[in-house]
Amino acid sequence: MKLKQHMNNFLQDFLNKEKIEFRDWNISVNNQEGYGDYSSNIALKLAKILKKSPIEIAKKIAGHQNTTKNIFTISASEPGFINFHISDIYYQEILNQIINEAENFGKKKKLNKSANVEFVSSNPTGPLTVGHGRQAILGDMVSNILTWNGYDVTREYYYNDAGKQMRVLAESCYAKYAQLIGRDVEIPENGYVGTYLDEIAKKIVDRYGKDLKDNNSVFRDFTEKEIFTNIKSTLDSIGIKFDVFTKEGTFYKNGAIKNVLEILKEKDLSYEKDGAVWFRTSSLDKDEDKVLVKSTGEPTYRLPDIAYHADKVDRGFDLIVDIFGADHIDTYPDVILGLKCLDKKTDHIKVIIHQFVTIKKGGEIVKMSTRKANFITLDELKSELSSDIIRYFFIMRGANSHLDFDLDLAKDESEKNPVYYLQYANARISNLLKRYDKEISVDEKIDYTLLKEKDEIALIKLLSEFPNKMEEVSHSLEPRKIATYLEDVAGAYHKFYGNHKVINLEDLNLSFARKKLCEATKIILKNGLSILGISAPERM
Hints:
Layout lengths: L2 H16 L8 E3 L8 E3 L1 H9 L3 H9 L9 E6 L3 E6 L1 H14 L11 E6 L11 H19 L2 E9 L4 H17 L14 H14 L9 H20 L6 E4 L2 H4 L2 H11 L3 E4 L2 E4 L10 E4 L8 H13 L4 E7 L6 H10 L7 E6 L2 E5 L2 E3 L11 H7 L2 H7 L9 E4 H5 L6 H22 L14 H11 L1 H11 L3 H20 L8 H24 L9
Parallel strand pairs: 5-6, 5-11, 6-7, 11-12, 13-15
Antiparallel strand pairs: 1-2, 2-4, 3-4, 8-9, 9-10, 13-14
Helix pairs in contact: 2-3, 4-17, 4-20, 6-7, 6-8, 7-8, 10-11, 11-12, 16-19, 16-20, 17-19, 17-20, 19-20
């Protein structure tokens, strides 16, 4: 049974005895010295219901019969907190569990549930930039988190192969082709001008010759294929693979988009005005109606996205996760509303909105635009940085916070760089364990009760929190929380290592216990880093 479950059971037993119906309380880690390892706000919450002071209730709870004294003792403190003091013996026994379960410690068994995670979904109009990188890394880590927590995960990439952007891309590529063979053709307004198109245009000349007309499908199909091949290669270089690639055009061909329009019309939830088709969202508690099809006949993002999400719902996933950039914050609620109008289930859809990235180099902001080709591509970043550093730096802030990607710090090979700080902790342990095996040939009987120094207990306490952290991120889907936790573990280990001698020939029993503490720390670091898709090198 998990530690928090023991604590919750104690509180529930008190409520049962007092015949109080109540379930709204929290138990959180307590970092204030002298007030236990965990605290609950249950007495503060009950005060209004019982019409008593929180401290009076807290003292009564603390006096309730505790059948788990071997795990924790209880105290009350102002203004009305319940404090759980976890026994050293419990923490010491956790080490044994970590070592025995190793790579499975904190990992849930298969839930027989499926999840779909859609991310990146960048249209094939140019190479992936560092701006796309944040979503790519975030989506991959969210997928890993769900897999760790027992889901069967499908990673999906959805892209627009049927809209205006692809038409402008084809026109831009033709212009590059024409210029290459001596024709006087200008890049269309708002066209794409990146050097990647020069390279594709040269390939078209080499493969198809110099006689192609501007309406030849090669400029669309070949260009899309070339760019998408590059996108897949870029993602593969940072450890990201997809299970499913879905094209927007599919939903035009199979009639799904037409079906959405027909259903909305039948339900009087759409109408025509000024040559456009409008979604009557004002009748659904929204401030204004939204355009589904422009007067030019071109659909807005909302329409094909409604059809696409209806398809995902119909595929029967237990959980659907959409990871969008901040530019989707106004459109995704309309997609969810559209699904409801189609009588589709939506309560299993979780949308994660991430903010934009600012790239800094030499203290200066680097601007990015796919059309103007003023950007740093992920390929360029990968040529300068390892995949490990790229992945970690994209989660240096929570998804909902703006991210400054500091290229100079990313290149710093010191403990200022958090990736090196974490990997160095793992490498330090690996080196120490090798030295231990050379200097101490025989292992002693394990006596974890010898681990009672403050630094030792603090480290064990952190290690024991790993299952709780993974449970927490299974709901928040915020990989930054794993990174923060691992940084805390690495910091606690470095402190322990600096203050205590692990290999001590004069006290082999203590040496062996500390060796096991090091092994357990290594397991947690490696497990956490694996979820982030970051390596745990044995030496640096």
